Amino acid sequence: MTMPIEENAQPICVAALYRFASLDGIAQLREPLKRLCDDEGIKGTLLLASEGINGTIAGFRGGIDRVLDHIRSWLDCADLDVKFSGAATMPFHRMKVRLKQEIVTMGQPGIDPAVDAGTYVDPHDWNALVDDPDTIVIDTRNDYEVSIGSFAGSINPMTGSFRDFPEWFARERERLLGSENPPRVAMFCTGGIRCEKASAFLKKEGLEDVFHLKGGILAYLEAMPEEESRWEGECFVFDQRVAVGHALSQGTHELCFACRRPVSEADKQSPLYEPGVSCPACHGERDDEQRASYRERHRQEMRAASEGRAHVGAVLAETGANDGD
């Protein structure tokens, strides 16, 4: 799904993209793609695997378009899913094209979302699906993402990583789907990639009536008027915005630079919160030596910012995979 951005609204175009497709010879695809990105001044991260491509890149719009056209020329990549946003400054330090086993890590062999994914649901049709009492709605994101917002009535698997989803489903299968007539399942995630793969996993498990939100939460928040929305809270995003609300408006959360989890205004009032060092969620996960290291890094970042230069350790600068793990 491609959506135009307003020309000159912000000088840097950011494109989050993915496509499940059977890619042969990913090592041979890597170098021409990397060279084109470098020639066009594009930065970010792209992941290539035999199951497809995933990542986020940034640069001037003309260069972004040339890179996207190049990817779309690959077999079965014409329908590349792309979401555009803008940035005042370049959000990445360098360009990386990495070869991976999976473009979003689930760790389950034999899953092919390019062939076996569930049925796409357009954002405008999502309300009718999730309002049906016979539909089980599952949030396929990680628990820290769910904690700041989700669809009303959806199930939170409480996973720390997407690779934990199959284990959760194995534990809960009988409770959720043990009836004689298996229910309809609807799944969603931030941008669509995790729920698309999760839908293929459920179909491999023998379920037939499986649906997933096309374009993910971001497409829904952009398309659905707030007064008609079933979304509650904010949506965590893996870029400099941290969280967004309806119409993709800037959210109220910031990022903990120690653990990359979202931090609310209430979290900032906790004695466990220290900017750049810890938040209530991660304070107990670090020792004094680690916090001292983070404190020094934060001091250097603040100094660099006051001098008007980028600090090479900036956290958001190296995040580029679309939708996270």
TrEMBL record:
Q: Which UniProt keywords apply?
A: Oxidoreductase, Transferase, tRNA processing
Single Gene Ontology BP term? tRNA modification
**Matches recorded under CDD domains:** RHOD_YceA
Query: Can you state which reaction this protein catalyses?
Result: uridine(34) in tRNA + AH2 + O2 = 5-hydroxyuridine(34) in tRNA + A + H2O
Give the E.C. number(s): 1.14.-.-
Please note every region of biased composition (Basic and acidic residues). Answer: 283-310
The family database entries (InterPro entries) matched by this protein are listed as: Rhodanese-like_dom, Rhodanese-like_dom_sf, TrhO, TRHO_N
Q: Where is this region: Disordered?
A: 282-325
Kindly report, in one word, the top-level EC class recorded for this enzyme. oxidoreductase
Recorded hits in HAMAP family, A to Z, give: TrhO (MF_00469)
Q: Which NCBIfam families match?
A: PRK00142.1-4 (NF001136)
Function description: Catalyzes oxygen-dependent 5-hydroxyuridine (ho5U) modification at position 34 in tRNAs.
User: What's the family?
Assistant: Belongs to the TrhO family.
In Swiss-Prot or TrEMBL terms, this protein is called tRNA uridine(34) hydroxylase
